[in-house]
C-alpha cells in the first residue's frame, strides 16, 4: 500500500520510463497465460492418465481383480460402499451444518460468532488421518453401547441387524467420521450464503412482527436455497473422495450390505480400498485399482459439477 | 382509579391497548436450561441413570418445557421460535463435541511420548521403544516445501491471468471452471495421477518424494488460485488507473502496485493451502511410500512423511503395537500442532498486514 501512495522522485519516474517496453508486457502476459494453460493441462492430464492406465483393467478377470469375475464385480461393491458411507454422512451433517451456520450468521452475538466461525474452520484444518485415528481409537469404541442399544431395540430394521463388533468399526462409524469432516465445508458455504441475505428483506420481515425463526424461514432460507443445495453437494464430493479416515475405520471387505452396525458384512469404499491395497499391488492389480480411481474421479466430478452449476444458477437468479 | 374495566387507562383517561403481547422474561431460556440441568443431575444422583441418558432427559425437558411455557404465555408462533432456537443451539453443541473430544484425545494421548529424543531419532533399526519421527518430520517439510514451490508461482500467475489479462475471455472462464473442478479432486486420485505420470518416466513401482510434491500441487494449486483471485479482485481499480496514468506499463503496474497491495491476502491464502496439504495422506501413501530412516533426496527412493507414518503405525504395527500406537499419537499431535500453527499464522498475517483501506 505504501508503495502506491509514496510520491515518486523524478529519478524514479525516468527509471520506469526507460524500462517501459512492450517486451516486458508480452513476456509477463505470456507467463500468466501459460500457467493458466498449465492448469488446464494438469486436469486433462489427470483424466488422460487415469483413463490410459485404468482402461487396461477393463478385461481383467480372476486374480487381477482380487478373485472377482470381472472388473465390474470388483468395482460395484466398492462403489456401493462409497455411496452408502457418503449418504449417511450427508444425512447427519447437512442438518447440523445448517444449524451451525445459522448460529454463526444469525443467532450468536457478533464477537462470539466470529470466534465460533474460527473454531469450525479449525475443524476443517485437522488432517484426515488424525480424524481416522480418532475415529478408530475413540469414537468407534464409544459408539459400541449405542450400537448395542440400536440392535436390541431396532434390530428388526435391516440397517441395525448387527452383530455389533467390539471394536465398533462399522459403516455407521465411518459415516459419522465423514459427517464430522464434511460439516465444516457445508457450514462455511451455508454461512456465507446466509450472511448475504439482503438486510432489507430481514428487517422488513421483523418489522411485520415475524419472530426470528419466521424471519429466517421466510427470508433467509428462500434466498439461500440453491446455496444450501450446492453446499451439501460439495460436502458430498468431499465425503466421496475421503480416503484415510475410512481406510482406518472400516475393516475392508467386498460386499454389498445395508447392515450398518456390523464389521464382517460392511462394504468398503473406493478410496479406502486403493489406500489399503496399493502398497502390495503390482502389475494388473495396479491397473484395477487405478480403474476404481477413475470411477471415483468421474463420480466426484459429476457431483462437484452439479454443485457448482446449482450455485452459479442461484447467483444469476438471486 | 375508579375505572373498573380491565383495559389499562393512560393519564388522558382514554382506554388503550398494550403495545406488546405477553412475553417471557429475558432470563426464561437460562432458567429453563438450569431447571433441565438440575433435573438431569438429580436423575443421575437419585435415579442412578447413566450420563448419556441424563443428557437426553435434560435435553428433552428443555426442548419440550421451554416451548410449552412459551406457548402458554406468548402463543404458538413464539413457541415455534423457541423450538427452532433450542434445535439450532443443540445442533451447534452436537457439532462441537467432535472438535473438543478430538483435540482432547490427541493432546492427552500424544503428549506423554513427546521428548527431544522423539524428534531426533528416526525409526531406522528400531523395534519397540526408542524410536522417533525425525525422518517423517523432515519428509513432510521437504515434500510440502517443494509442493509450495511448484504451486505458488503457477497459482499466483494463473490468478493474475484470470483477473488482469483474461477477464471475461473464454479461456478465463474455462480455467475458472477447471479450477473449481480441481478443488473437488479426491486426494487419492491426485496420488494415482502422480503415480501414473511417474511410471512413464521411471517404470512401474516408482516411489519418490518429488512425486508426492506433484500430487500435493494438484491439490494446492486450485486453493492458491482461488485465494489470490479473490485478493486481486479487491484491489481498487483507481490504483491501477493511477499507475497507468503515470505511464507505467501493465506488467510493472501488476508487479509494483497490484501485488504489493494484495500481498497479505495472498500470503494468508498460501499459508492456508500449505496447512491443508501438509496433512494429506492418501497421495503420499501411493507415491512417496514409507521408510524407517531419513531420506533428504526427494528425487530418489521412498520418503517417510508424518501422515503416512501415522497410517502405517496403526494399520501395520507389527508385534510392538503399543509402542507404535504411542508413536502414532505423538506424530498426530505434532501434525495437528503444525497445521494449527500455520492456520493461526495465516490469520495473523491476514489481519496485521491487511492493507488499510480507510473504509
UniProtKB/TrEMBL annotation, chain B:
Domain ABC transmembrane type-1 positions: 137-346
Keyword Transmembrane: yes
Function field: Part of the binding-protein-dependent transport system for phosphate; probably responsible for the translocation of the substrate across the membrane.
Pfam families reported for this sequence: BPD_transp_1 (PF00528)
Source organism: Nocardioides cremeus
TM helices/strands, residue ranges: 31-62, 83-107, 133-163, 175-202, 208-225, 257-275, 326-349
Keyword Lyase recorded: no
Similarity comment: family membership: Belongs to the binding-protein-dependent transport system permease family. CysTW subfamily.
Keywords, comma-separated and alphabetical: Cell membrane, Membrane, Phosphate transport, Transmembrane, Transmembrane helix, Transport
InterPro entries hit by this protein: MetI-like (IPR000515), MetI-like_sf (IPR035906), Phosphate_PstA (IPR005672), Phosphate_transprt_permease (IPR051408)
Full protein name: Phosphate transport system permease protein PstA
Localization: Cell membrane
Gene3D superfamilies in UniProt: MetI-like
Topological type in the membrane: Multi-pass membrane protein
Superkingdom of origin: Bacteria
